[in-house]
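dumping this here before i forget
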Amino acid sequence: MELIEELIQKIDAGDRSTAVERMKEWAGINGYDRLMDEILDPVLKEVGERWMREDISLAQSYIAAKIAGDILEQIASDRAADSKPDLLLGPVVLGNIEADFHALGRRMVVMFLKATRWEVHDLGNDVPPVEFVNKAVEVGAKIIGASAMMYTSAENIKLLRADIVFMPFVLPYEGEAFGSRCEHFESQPPNLRQPAISSSDEIADLTVPDIDSCPGLQYMLEALDLLVSEHGKETMVAGIAMSPVDLPMMIMGLEGWLQTILFNHAGTESLLEITRTFFINWANAQFARGADFIALPVVFLNPSVVSLEIAETISLPVFNEVLPQINGPVVIHHTGAKFLSALELLIDLPNVLGFVIDHRDSFSVAREIIGDELTMLGGLDGPNIGKFTPEEIKSQCKKILEDRQDDPRFILSTSGADIALDTPAENIRAILEAVESGSQGITGE
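structure:
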């Protein structure tokens, strides 16, 4: 097209104003949507290809970017004037990462997004990682764009990434696979409504579920697929499974399982035979889809919850049998109970990567028990974070980080169950800010 060739000539000549006017004239007749698709896009592709061939100067590339910016700014301005807020896409948070001041590329992206009706929050240059996260939490953005031109500043982008991402913790769906009924809520995960069986007399009617035929389990695996495709190359992705000795709670209820495990040895063995097989199948299905490890909550292996006799004679042999048969490691979770008494039993289990301990447990004692090689996670009381002020949370984090600064295998995390959905965003940001400010003084590997 003649206009495309003319614009390339204007770029070569550095004639920004004429190039912009010619495109506005064309858009006045044909519309800006066609201008972007039929004129601007081919021009920028040509400029990019010439840059790759080293057939264009940096100054000419800069002129091309400014011309595109002028047009995109005009489009964004026109569309903002007649766009309704509920028709906007996004929001998205953009900025140049800390120590980077090369704004041209970011501004181009901002203009393109605005021109296509995205709600853009542009943080500018030299933005610390925590500020990206803070703004994303504030505006509800699911997309963060961090720009960097130099390798040294691009390294700072790594600080934006999560350490670990988890597939949905929808444990009742494992019970649902056996026939239990779940109740769903708007503000919290599903919960068990009605167990599949009501007594040990019905255990004989149970069979090992087919994972491929269970909608809830398929939902969890599909979520895992998305996490692996989005984060798997840079971030650890955790699966989730109930242990064979805890899953019966989701099949026959806590009281029914306690009655069985205490008074019906044959029923206990029959149900554990089924749950052992299911656990191995379910864990290996997650590893096959890309999970790096399995988060494994345990109740019936904790002497602060059940008797030491049950833990040692029933639960421990099951763990020793099934863990070598899964295709990856597990991280064992305390499930809201103090955990030091359990660690003594668990340290020699196979295939264990580490432990999440309770916020009431002593880090130094736990480390003494598990040794130097296993990972230890914990520190903050997750369900009650909303009850503290941001300053109190920062203070808690600071004390924990100072206490663990020489522990290279400690990860600060929340303990207990989930953080409540109504937890103030500033409380969550306080954790990020405490880690960001405190990490400069941490000497661990």
